[in-house]
Specification:
Layout lengths: L4 H4 L5 E2 L8 H10 L4 E4 L1 H11 L8 H12 L9 E5 L4 E5 L2 H8 L9 H8 L2 E5 L3 H12 L4 E5 L23 H12 L4 E5 L8 H6 L6 E4 L4 H14 L3 E4 L5 E5 L27 H11 L7 H9 L11 H19 L7 E4 L2 H4 L21 H9 L11 H11 L11 E6 L2 E6 L1 H4 L8 H20 L2 E7 L8 E9 L27 E2 L5 H12 L5 E5 L2 H20 L1 H11 E2 L2 H7 L3 E2 L7 H10 L2 H9 L4 H11 L4 E7 L4 H20 L3 E4 L2 H10 L8 H17 L7 E11 L15 E4 L2
Parallel strand pairs: 2-4, 5-6, 5-8, 6-7, 8-9, 12-23, 18-19
Antiparallel strand pairs: 1-3, 3-4, 9-10, 10-11, 12-13, 13-15, 14-15, 16-22, 17-20, 20-22, 21-22
Length: 761
């Protein structure tokens, strides 16, 4: 059961024509028609109030006022005086004083903040409002203050219960169009205000009608959600010289654009500079967020506003607005519009009426982003001392340029977050590989797993590069055990000598510098069996290594979801978040070039919306709030989007969880990766599960809170149901393989003079 549709669009009160109540007889027949409706005769009380306000000096008592009223009413038929107004939607008939007296009464308490002359001037002005959520508050404030004589209201939407967190209206209006509701509420405050509704909203076709019909509006108030409309309405307002006012109800942000005095002014204060504005007919979901961010210059948004921005379309449906902010916005816009119309305010600009700042908590200490690194920066004198503690070996020295070539190639190995955890010491003809724990200390390097994998990969490059130079390699791995920072002692000898380490696929040396992480958008081409065989052989050429792959779409997506959930755990964990923001990501090309480590944000292969979301998640407080509301679904989506275009997912495992097995696993990873590079396949590591799971399986939930640990246990269980290996293996490498364009930008490497030290060769 619902209001019939006709009545749903009625918003103008009906003024009963004078002749219908001109004398007693006509009055009686007219009132008969309204039998059964609510009839409120407010005439006498209004007339008496008028008498009172017209004698401010005397302060008439109730009795005196009544006396004066009786004198006035003498010999008059009161029923025929003033006006009768009928409100069809509420079936009420009201008897009021006539228009001039009504306005005098209703605005009497505006004086002299608004003078009678100003009030008259305002009554001849019109304001158009597009969007009636914030606009409802604006329209009612303007109407209540009588800051104009005509209002045009546009919104295609109807009131829903969830709107009533900020729109102050009754439940009986649910299902009624927002501008109709607003117009009726205004009519109930002041039936003499001229209101026009556009219940179909604003389109290209009717925008001009909205701005121009019945005289050009004096101000356009924009409170709509549609970005394309925001842009086109401003372009047209600028052409027509109509000032635009907008309030966003986040940090009380108010925009004033005086196209009436500056028609050449760029829309949105130039925040959209450089964008072809004509192409914003239909804006895709993906481009919407970055545009919103540009328009509101989101860096200045409130923390909670930004949290919500990232969660739109994830855990919440739309942009949140609170009644307090919307009420404030109604007041601010009314005040500014009144001053514009009265020629008391001439500026354009963006203003923040930010209550949390104006009425702020002074005791709050800002949280510094700093994390203590327990390791000292790498010390080469100490390294020499460790090297000297090994028994001396008789080895031949190699030319310094050959050494530089070999170590340079070793440094091209992948490392987590491109942290390059290696330091090389060439001493007494031997090359020592050390773990720089100061560089690799991070949430991602739990139990030094990530670093040991990188060392194995760099060692594989040494084998290839030495072989190319006609040298064989012999090495002792972890010669002083797993606690020592010494990872390997490496000897070079001219080939043909006995016992050198065998070299797998010597031709792979040619792609050491080509190999890279490829996060570009990819195509899930079918991978021929022969190619899989080659990849598998490469991975399994290291004793004990196993290669598993998943090319079934459903399995890929199931694993992808686990990867995404792990990414979310990692990014919302305080330590993981700190590393990501301050250690790994280089947020500008300059930063990447200067540090020569970490990951250039441009290589993430993200679309605009994802980069926008990422720039918001950078803030520690925002990431912690997201964690508190179990947000961050956008992070899971990013992983799912990435794996959805995979030809397959691959995994490399080793038989047992030990430093040495991870080192050997790193060799297997590098062999597979170089092989994929030669076959021109893109490899994109997706390793968060392999770096996080050991925290619960081997590390007593190290660095995790209870909720994170519980989440990971669930994910681990799901993961183990999908993979064909047991709990005890070392999980080395998890990646996506597909066809993709080569990245235009590659990760930098530290200069050799910072990683290789040569002491009395």
């Amino acid at each position: 059961m619902h209001h019939n549709t006709e009545i749903n669009y009625i918003y103008k009160p009906v003024f009963i024509s004078k002749e219908r109540h001109a004398d007693k007889t006509s009055f009686l027949s007219f009132i008969e028609d309204y039998r059964g409706k609510t009839i409120l005769d407010l005439f006498a009380s209004q007339k008496q109030e008028l008498i009172r306000i017209r004698h401010p000096k005397k302060r008439l008592s109730a009795a005196e006022t009544e006396q004066k009223y009786r004198e006035w009413a003498e010999g008059k038929d009161i029923n025929t005086e003033g006006v009768w107004v009928y409100y069809p939607w509420s079936e009420r008939l009201l008897h009021l004083v006539d228009e001039a007296e009504f306005i005098e009464l209703r605005t009497s308490r505006n004086q002299y903040k608004i003078t009678p002359d100003e009030q008259l001037h305002l009554s001849k002005r019109s304001i158009g409002i597009i969007g009636l959520s914030v606009g409802h508050s604006v329209a009612l404030s303007i109407a209540t203050e009588r800051a104009c004589g005509k209002l045009k209201l546009a919104d295609f939407d109807t009131i829903e219960l969830s709107n009533l967190n900020r729109i102050r209206t009754g439940l009986h209006n649910i299902g009624v169009n927002k501008c109709i509701v607003t117009a009726r509420e205004i009519a109930e405050i002041d039936p003499f205000l001229d209101i026009e509704c556009f219940p179909d909203g604003i389109t290209k076709e009717n925008l001009d009608g909205f701005l121009l019909d019945g005289g050009k509006v004096d101000i356009l108030v924009d409170e709509c959600d549609d970005i394309a409309l925001k842009i086109s309405a401003r372009i047209r307002a600028a052409q027509l010289g109509i000032p635009v006012v907008m309030e966003t109800s986040d940090r009380g942000m108010l925009d004033v654009e005086r196209f009436d005095t500056e028609p050449e002014r760029p829309i949105f204060h130039g925040y959209l500079q450089g964008l072809p504005l004509d192409k914003f007919e239909h804006i895709s979901e993906e481009d919407r967020l970055p545009l919103v961010l540009r328009i509101v210059n989101a860096i200045n948004g409130s923390k909670r506003g930004k949290v919500s921005l990232v969660e739109i379309g994830q855990s919440i449906g739309t942009w949140p607005q609170l009644a307090s902010a919307v009420t404030l916005g109604g007041g601010v816009v009314t005040d500014v519009c009144r001053r514009i119309l009265l020629n008391q305010f001439h500026e354009s600009g963006r203003y923040y009426i930010d209550l949390e700042e104006l009425v702020g908590d002074k005791s709050e200490k800002p949280q510094g982003s700093f994390r203590h690194n327990p390791h000292a920066p790498f010390d080469f004198t100490e390294a020499v001392r460790i090297a000297d503690s090994l028994p001396q070996k008789q080895t031949e020295t190699i030319p310094e340029n050959t050494l530089a070539d070999i170590v340079n190639a070793a440094c091209q190995a992948p490392s987590t977050g491109n942290d390059q955890p290696w330091k090389w010491l060439y001493h007494h003809g031997r090359l020592f590989l050390f773990h720089d724990r100061f560089r690799s200390f991070s949430f991602g390097d739990f139990d030094q797993i990530a670093s040991n994998i990188s060392f194995g990969a760099s060692y594989e490059n040494i084998l290839l590069k030495a072989h190319e130079a006609g040298l064989g390699v012999k090495a002792e791995i972890f010669p002083l055990g797993e606690d020592s920072p010494l990872i390997a002692a490496i000897d070079f000898e001219h080939t043909g000598t006995n016992g050198a380490e065998p070299v797998y696929a010597p031709e792979a040396v040619g792609v050491i510098y080509e190999r890279c992480t490829n996060r570009n958008p990819s195509t899930p081409v079918e991978i021929p069996e022969a190619v899989f065989q080659q990849l598998k052989n490469a991975a399994r050429s290291v004793a004990g290594a196993e290669f598993h792959y998943f090319s079934d779409k459903q399995e890929i997506m199931a694993i992808g979801e686990i990867i995404g959930e792990c990414d979310r755990v990692r990014l919302l964990n305080p330590e993981g978040h700190y590393d990501f923001v301050h250690r790994e990501m280089k947020w500008s090309p300059t930063e990447a070039e200067l540090s020569r480590d970490g990951i250039d944000v441009r290589t993430l292969g993200l679309n605009n919306a994802q980069i926008a979301a990422l720039s918001i998640i950078r803030d520690r407080e925002i990431s912690q709030t997201l964690k508190g509301v179990q947000g961050g679904g956008a992070l899971v989506d990013a992983a799912l989007k990435s794996v959805s275009t995979a030809s397959a997912l691959g995994m490399i495992t080793m038989p047992k969880y030990s430093y040495k097995d991870f080192f050997l696993g790193g060799m297997a990873m590098q062999r597979l990766w170089l092989q994929a590079e030669q076959l021109q396949f893109a490899i994109h590591p997706l390793i968060s599960p392999f770096y996080l799971f050991p925290r619960i399986t081997k590390g007593n939930n190290a660095g995790l809170d209870e909720a994170e640990a519980a989440r990971l246990r669930t994910l681990r269980k799901r993961f183990m149901e999908l993979v064909p290996f047991g709990e005890e293996v070392a999980e080395v490498f998890l990646f996506k393989i597909a066809k993709a364009e080569k990245p235009g930008i590659k990760s930098y490497r530290l200069p050799l003079n910072e990683t290789l030290f040569i002491v009395n060769p």
